[in-house]
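User: I'll paste a sequence; please echo it back and then give the predicted structure.

Assistant: Echoing your sequence first, then the prediction.
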Amino acid sequence: MKRHIITTADGSKTIQIDDWNEQYHSIHGAIQEANHVFIKTGFEAVISGLQLNSLSILEIGFGTGLNAIITLLKAEKEQVHVDYVGIEAYPVLTSEISQLNYAELLKGDSAEAQFKAIHTISWEIKVSLSKFFQLTKQEKKFQDITNINQFHLIYFDAFGARVQPELWTEPIFEKMYNALKPKGVLVTYSAKGSVRRAMQAVGFVVERLPGPPGKREMLRATKPETFNDAK
């Protein structure tokens, strides 16, 4: 499918898939969306709510690595140890990565080198990218995830249900539910009623929260501490 780089409303770039009229990140601001959905509503809420100084994160849709670099910088700032697993079925091309300007805009002391490292380390191997951040990239389909009670937090950043509805169904969310520890949290930019109902059907407690720029709402789903009766 034909793809090209576009600039979003906050000046950060993303990838446009022309055949789908779909983007890897919000056209209203790629960095703004990532900070709102995954850092503020996910990372910060989980660290505060569970009183953690170490955090295991699963990202569904590793894509451009934007969520990973923002999380790395946040982990260093807060001195929280993060074990991060990014799942991606179709890795982004090196030629596309070279056109993204996230490191320039995020302005971390070593953001450029760290962003490059995120994309040059080998797949399937855990690598320490800083004192506070370990990354494992896994190239596989979301349907093949088999983790059980492993993660505190899931960033669910798949392409939208309009273009890939099969990724927003009960079987997928059951895999997400199983992968989370009790009291674990899943955050996503989506607020579709069908998505919320699929989450609830597998046992999640789901909240509608204010969305990032350009979206009225988003969803946050929590796996109950006592969860066997929830299904």
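The two ends are 39 Å apart (CA to CA). The CA atoms of residues 24 and 159 lie 7 Å apart.
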